[in-house]
Amino acid sequence: MLDNISLFVQSTGYVNLEFGQLFMILISLVLLYLAVVKKYEPLLLVPISFGMLLVNLPLGDLMAEPQNGQIGGLLYYLYYGIKLGIYPPLIFMGVGAWTDFGPMIAQPKTALLGAAAQFGIFATIFGALALGFSPAEAGAVGIIGGADGPTAIFAASRLAPHLMGPIAVAAYSYMALVPIIQPPIMRLFTTHEERKVKMEQLRHVNKKEKIIFPIAVTLLGGLLVPTALPLLGSLMFGNLMREVGVVDRLLKTTQNALMNIVTLFLGLTVGATASAEAFLNAQTIGIIVLGLVAFGFGTATGVIFGKIMHRVTGGKVNPLIGAAGVSAVPMAARVVQKVGQEENPSNHLLMHAMGPNFAGVIGSAIAAGALIAILG
């Protein structure tokens, strides 16, 4: 009887819990707190933090690979959607189905702000190379600067699958922390008078323009960077379904059921890659730091280019909208609106910021495709 009790005790997680696992469990609880209490991207952080919690509970083996005829863990099989690059394009399809590219079409020059914000990706690549990462690994780490979780996952799956866990967690964590990270950078590079600038109302964009846009972007972007087509093509197909107005059933499924299911699986499996063994090492810490640098640099270059546009247009552009050039949709645009209204309560920058925000989504997908083609 005592032997049986002893065997049971030895089989519990309480006895087998190690310090690294406990530390990661505490991190998962902090992320869960940010999601639930602070409401920082809860649709992402709740499944990510819980997946992190699950994988660090000892003896659960939810990410265990199949061995000796035994089946693997539940999350191991769900992880194939990330490993094979399936979830990110499906997420992009859902994003496209929800997106109105009207603000970007109405003010095409703001697309340059989305392009400028991608400099964070390429600047961080050099930092990663200096820290000893291989060119392919550096490319995968640099994509975090685009502030686009699906793009970061897709690029990592092609360039550095072994770094998928820390890259994915870093990318989604920084996306969720946009309201904390961006405002200080935005204020640092702009003056009070610049932040007060009110922009003119955008012109009306007709239905024909909105239908032509996703087709044109697919053709131009797909021919320029074919490796970006899984992301870019999915994004534009989702948007085309929205604009044509004849596939409502497909559109609603993409916007709701499909998007929710994929987000759920992606979040859980991203979190499940953050085991203590894979996460608590110098390389991972380097990725987390470089990811923050990439995101901060992308925000800064977007704002700086916004200042240039402000001067070129004779003060008609509020440089704050450049911060939305990172592709954290729509959080970055909301942050621009918030900071702008703090300086001028009558200021309404949201729709103006959505242009560079959407351009950032397209830009990060093209940048990822280019890096995959060059470094993959």
Automatic annotation (TrEMBL):
Transmembrane segments: 20-36, 43-64, 76-99, 111-133, 167-190, 211-237, 257-280, 287-305, 357-375
Superkingdom of the source species: Bacteria
Signal peptide range: none
InterPro entries linked to this entry: OadB_MmdB (IPR005661)
Any one GO CC term of the record: plasma membrane
Keyword Magnesium attributed: no
Protein topology in the membrane: Multi-pass membrane protein
Subcellular location: Cell membrane
Keywords per UniProt: Cell membrane, Ion transport, Lyase, Membrane, Sodium, Sodium transport, Translocase, Transmembrane, Transmembrane helix, Transport
The protein's enzyme class: lyase
GO terms (BP aspect): sodium ion transport
A molecular function (GO) term: oxaloacetate decarboxylase activity
EC number: 4.1.1.112
NCBIfam families, sorted: Na_pump_decarbB
Protein name: Sodium ion-translocating decarboxylase, beta subunit
Organism of origin: Halanaerobium hydrogeniformans
Taxonomic lineage: Bacteria, Bacillati, Bacillota, Clostridia, Halanaerobiales
